[in-house]
Structure prediction request, 202 residues.
Amino acid sequence: MGTSDSDTTRLWHMRLGYAGEKALQGLVKKGLLKGATTCKLDFCEHCVLGKQTRVKFGTAVHQTKGILDYVHSDVWGPTKTPSLSGRHWFVTFVDDYSRKSWVYTMKHKSEVLSIFLGWKKMVENQTGRKIKILRSDNGGEYTSDPFFKVCKEEGIGRHFSVRGTPQQNGVAERLNRTLLEKVRCMLSQSGLRTRLGERLKF
Prediction:
């Protein structure tokens, strides 16, 4: 593999949030990576630093038949350093059936319910379907009386992971991990160490 090929592949690797060889291979085959003819990657120190993780843990098994039948949600934070607009947290929502994901940044964890209500209205209007089950951890932002009241009134079932075992909320936790891996890799490569960009779109 020539130096130019290696440099081009590495550049696309970084541009795509430090994507792995398998993801790059599919894009190369489709001719979507201009100038790249191979998906072979050299050692990447930023991936090593940004993607360290714990041993895999078993997750709950269930089946869904349609969009919004089963939604995963999780909150991450606080960051040691806030974003430029003072946000320390983010909340994620993942549709189990389509795996489409939404990310919202927050200044306070108490914003989760209002964000959920706005997100719920948007996705239900767009799809013509209703949320059936919401899975989350047992954090106070999800177990407050107002949150339970909304879910009861809207007929939304609740599934919770066991306290101290975030792996049981695996889908949402994996999304958080993926987002943070990409951010850490980019910060490592750029030499920046502080502010987490608040617009995480993918």
About this structure: The helical segments are 3-15, 21-29, 45-50, 112-127, 140-143, 145-154, 170-190.
